[in-house]
Amino acid sequence: MTKQSFPLLGLHCAACAAHATRALEETSGVSSASVNLASASAFVVYDETKCSREDLRSAVASMGYDLRIDEPDVDEIEALRLREEKSQQTKTIVSVVLSLLVMGLMMWPPMTLPKALLSALLSAITLGWAGSGFFVRGWRQLRSGAAGMDLLVMLSTSVAFVYSLVLLGEYLLGGTSEHALHHLYFEAASMTVAFVLVGKVIEARAQRRTSTALRQLMGSQPKTVQQVLPSGDTATLPIAEVEPGMTLRVLPHELFAVDGVVLSGESYADEQLISGEPIPVAKVAGARVYAGTLNGSGSLLYEAREVGRATILSRIIRLVQEAQSSRAPIQKVVDRVARVFVPVIVVIALLTLVAWGFLVPEGGWQMGLVAAVTVLVIACPCALGLATPTAIMVGIGRGAEEGILVRNAESLEAAQHIDSILLDKTGTITEGRPEVKAIRWTASATDSSATHLAELEELSTHPLAGAIVRYLEGAHEGEAPVTAFSEEAGRGLQGTISEKTYRVGQRAFVEEGGAVLSEEALTSLEEGQRAGATCSLFADEREVLAVIWIADTLRPSSRDAIAELQARGLEVIMLTGDGPGAARAVGEAVGVDRVVDSVLPEGKASFVEELQHQGRRVAMVGDGINDAAALARADLSIAMGSGSDLAMETAMVTIRTSELGSVVKLFDLAHRTLRTIHQNLFWAFIYNLIAIPVAAGLLYPFTGYLLNPMIAGALMMLSSLSVVANSVLSFRRGR
Q: Residue 432 is inside which H or E element, if any?
């Protein structure tokens, strides 16, 4: 299956998005599709053997939508949208000016024939030129049976305009009195177009603010790069021509073009875009660098490793695009409502006309026509369509800024229902880098014992050997060489120095070599095990010389983060493959009451399943390949960014900062996003539930007031803007 996000142009309301989604989903070979109104994009999962891109494009083309399948450049799409916005702004300005003139002519007494004719001409220009898009798209929607907001605008304005033309024609033919000129609605038709266009222009600007984070990510990709040729000369290449293995140069305060490894030079890099951490990272020979991050004051040569779509930045951009194009489960309900919204509104408008015509003997049909037009104008599927995607776009974008990459909208909704959170110990609660906490020397040790231990560990390939060497830094300089060196995997190492044999490793291994544990050494060993350390023994041929305590370092934020998660009512459980002593010690250090130790990778997944069978909603936080099965099984899976690619591929959320405190931020983000969606949907539904009956004339028997279509157009504009503004402001307030 191929997963791809396509720009989709021509969307204007929730019904547009819902019908486009349905058209794509009904295309043969498409597994799933989601159309995002706010980002003007379609995310499609399809089988390329059964369905081509051209098939996808054709599925929506008949409705008037343009699916860009040619993988256009981001700048090209942005320029196209800006051109479209500029054109719409021009039409909006003209429509507002002409509509104000029409309103002045129509409302400034006395009403005369020349004023009526001029109003008809100006109104015709407003509808025929500035509002032409509504009529073209509305007609396409009518033909394809995919009714949207454009059809409502087309029906309401054309009915008001044609009705006014008919009255004006009757007056010109002498069929009616001059009083008929006071019942023309040219200003209602033209002002409706003007208000809708003004709303669309403001709405487009507001929506651009919801995708600020994604544009920042895309803007972090340089267009060219300096290649260093074998001759030593440099050549400027477009970024698309860079290949792995090329030697590139980055100058001070420039962006890295691709992922790579530093060959020479020293500098610092601002990697906040990738990791979320504000502290610059030192870059020397052998250090990794990442596309889109900012070089400091030094010049570096680096070798290109991952280029194009393989860079971490490109992967993050794709992840954010997919997430922002995804639909929350609640959006499916909105889509079903949107598909029938316009037909229902048209039926209500017709019923309103008929009810007024039969229930009000004098002037009922005329007032009914005004009420029907008002119903068509005031009904707003746009607010419904924008309620969910704008909140998701802002929320996921804000998460990306803070180093929290959310795979889809379902992940945010899942976070709201979690009651248990499982934390892998190594790399999640701890740094994942074991260090020597102490070396307890016995009375038998001599001044040269530390030197001999360092010399032996220098030759070892064991992962913990490096930690011992760092701890004893400088102790092995200028000493006798090690001979007869050997290692036994999982047990220990042995070597001869100055004709004396030494062993480092497990208790059983050193005892096999003849060493005996003194009371002092045994006490140190037991203390280390109680403290949660992995203990290794250093001995000569007769006795133990030292007990080495090695333990992982706790992340500074772990204890506070766990306390905050517990304060939210979540049960925090620590899973680890370590033995009971080490697991219990770490659990006590960070405040975790429930610790599950000595668990294998498949055991982690089984434990997740066991909790789910108890009715629990489980989140799993891990970083290693051994966590992948449990991450895949959990209701919400969170991978720490320093972990394996498999863990991050499996997870629904990736924390790029590797700090447990970001998990707390994730739950905050989910809460704010879902709260904003519910607020938006509430106001969108309430607006329509109140506005449509009022437009139909519900208040007329009590107040004698019938809502003007022109005022209805303004209210429709404000309803859409309120949803977008609430999405943007809710996250600004939450910062």
A: strand 430-441
Per-residue confidence band for 218, with pLDDT thresholds at 50, 70 and 90: low
Which structure tokens are listed for 350? Answer: 């017709």
Query: Strands 420-424, 618-622: parallel, antiparallel or unpaired by DSSP?
Result: parallel
pLDDT above 90 covers what percent of the chain? 19
Sheet holding 30-36, edge to edge: 30-36, 41-46, 2-9, 66-67
Pairing between β-strand 234-238 and β-strand 224-228 as defined by DSSP bridges: antiparallel
Burial annotation 254-271 (CB, 10 A radius, 16+ → b, else e): ebbbbbbebeebebebbb
* Residue 159: strand, helix, or coil: helix
How would you class 372 by CB atoms within 10 Å of its CB: exposed for 0-12, middle for 13-18, buried for 19 or more? buried
Least-confidence region, from 83-92, 106-115, 176-185, 559-568:
176-185
Please name the amino acid found at residue 55: D
Residue 424 pairs in a beta bridge with: 575
The helix or strand, by DSSP H or E, that contains position 120, with its residue range, turns out to be helix 113-125
Which tens digit of pLDDT belongs to each residue from 583-626?
888 888 899 989 988 776 667 888 998 999 999 999 998 765 55
Tokens encoding 565? 């998660």
Task: Name residues whose C-beta falls within 8 Å of residue 550's C-beta, 6 or more positions apart in sequence.
Answer: 434, 435, 436, 437, 464, 467, 468, 533, 534, 535, 536
Closest CA to 716 of 128, 368, 162, 198: 198
Return the structure tokens found at 568: 């939210």
CB-CB contact of 508 with 536 (8 Å) = no
Q: Which residue type sits at 674?
A: L
Cβ–Cβ contacts within 10 Å for residue 109, how many? 8
Q: What is the distance between the alpha carbons of residues 581 and 534, in angstroms, rounded to a whole number?
A: 9
Residue type, 408: N
- Residues facing residue 619 across a β-bridge: 421, 636
Q: Facing residues of 3 across strands?
A: 45
The reported pLDDT for the residue numbered 693 is 93
Return phi, psi of residue 301, to 5°. Answer: -105, 135
Per DSSP, the residues of 243-284 read -TT-EEEE-TTPBP-SEEEEEE--EEEE-HHHH---S-EEE-
Catalytic residues: 424
Q: Is 481 exposed, middle or buried (0-12, 13-18, 19+ CB in 10 A)?
A: exposed
Query: Can you give the three-state secondary structure of 30-54, one letter per residue?
Result: EEEEEEECCCCEEEEEECCCCCCHH
Task: Collapse the DSSP code of 354 into the 3-class scheme (helix H, G, I; strand E, B; otherwise coil) and give the result.
Answer: helix
CB 718 within 8 A of CB 378: no
As a whole number of angstroms, the distance between CA 3 and CA 47 comes to 9
User: What average pLDDT does the chain have?
Assistant: 82
Instruction: Report residue 37: phi and psi, to 5°.
Output: -65, -40
Q: Mean pLDDT throughout 41-57?
A: 89
Do residues 679 and 464 lie in contact, with contact meaning Cβ atoms separated by under 8 Å? no
Spell out the residues 6+ positions from residue 86 whose beta carbon is closer than 8 angstroms to its own.
none
Specify the amino acid at residue 201. Answer: V
Alpha-carbon dihedral sign for residues 196, 202, 206, 212: positive
4-13, 320-329, 536-545, range with greatest mean pLDDT:
536-545
Residue with token string 């899942």: 414
Encoded tokens for 36: 């995002």
Distance CA 533, CA 438 (A): 10
Q: CA–CA separation, 256 vs 262, rounded Å?
A: 11
Question: Would the pLDDT of 646 be above 60?
Answer: no
Burial (CB < 10 A; 0-12, 13-18, 19+), residue 95, is buried
Residue 151's nearest CA partner among 162, 160, 163, 142 is 142
Query: Average pLDDT, stretch 67-72?
Result: 76
β 281-283/267-270 pair status: antiparallel
